[in-house]
Amino acid sequence: MPQIFSPRADGRFRLTLLLLVAGLLGAALLAYALARSDRAWAIGQPAPQPIPFSHALHAGNIGLDCRYCHAQVERSGNAGMPSAALCLGCHQQVWMGASILAPLHDSIELGDPIAWASVHRLPGHARFHHGVHVQAGVDCATCHGAVQTMPRTVKVHSMSMGWCLECHRAAAAMVPTANRAPDELGPLGLWHGGVELPPLTRCSTCHR
């Protein structure tokens, strides 16, 4: 039977297949790298806010405590955001006529809260409680970075599950077995593959 394709055509076909496979692998690696990049996690990117609030000025230069604006952070899951009334407590005397503060007055007149854009919002399937972390001695900067130096608030960590687990695993390793509650030990504890899972690294701790 005579050969339909010449050796040169066969070689070109093989090269095309090789380049196609290499291209697909390269595209997959590029997609993986982009998905884990700082840009994909919005690290270093300030969120647009109704008022250009500067933590560098308020928390840095003036020295306001985080809890002055985020009053619920020590006892609630949500740290809380400052209301227009709280802001105007100072800005009725300072910069009261500045146009950038117009959203504060609009909020009071319309009875609508200020629509602050969250920089560190987690997905709906993840549960985070600020009060628990603060009471455990976790400093604000551990997750939020040096906010007191930021003219515009930006994310400094991915807040991914892997990033959170690094901290949880380190904290769990610091709690000796003798200090664990009885229901965390023995047959009443949670085991996987013959390994006991400390409460801080269990799925149900953050996903409910």
Task: Give a quick rundown of the structure.
By secondary structure, the protein is an all-alpha fold. The protein has helices at residues 7-35, 55-61, 66-69, 84-91, 102-110, 130-135, 140-144, 161-173, 203-206; strands spanning 191-192, 195-196.
C-alpha geometry: elongated
Sheet having the most strands: 2 strands, antiparallel
SS field, number of helical segments: 9
Class by SSE composition: mainly alpha
**Helix and strand sequence:** HHHHHHHHEEH
Low-confidence stretches: 177-189
Give the neighbour order of strands across the main sheet: 1-2
Mean pLDDT over the full residue set: 84
Q: Percent helix among the residues?
A: 40-55%
Report strand %.
Answer: under 5%
Helices and strands in order, then pairings?
Layout: H1 7-35, H2 55-61, H3 66-69, H4 84-91, H5 102-110, H6 130-135, H7 140-144, H8 161-173, E1 191-192, E2 195-196, H9 203-206
Antiparallel strand pairs: 1-2
Helix pairs in contact: 4-5
If you had to describe this structure to a student in words, what would you say it looks like?
There is one protein chain. With 208 residues, this protein is mainly alpha-helical. 41% of the residues lie in helices and 2% in strands. The chain contains 9 helices and 2 strands. It has helices spanning 7-35, 55-61, 66-69, 84-91, 102-110, 130-135, 140-144, 161-173, 203-206; strands spanning 191-192, 195-196. It has a two-stranded antiparallel ribbon with strand order 1-2. Residues 177-189 have low confidence and may be disordered.
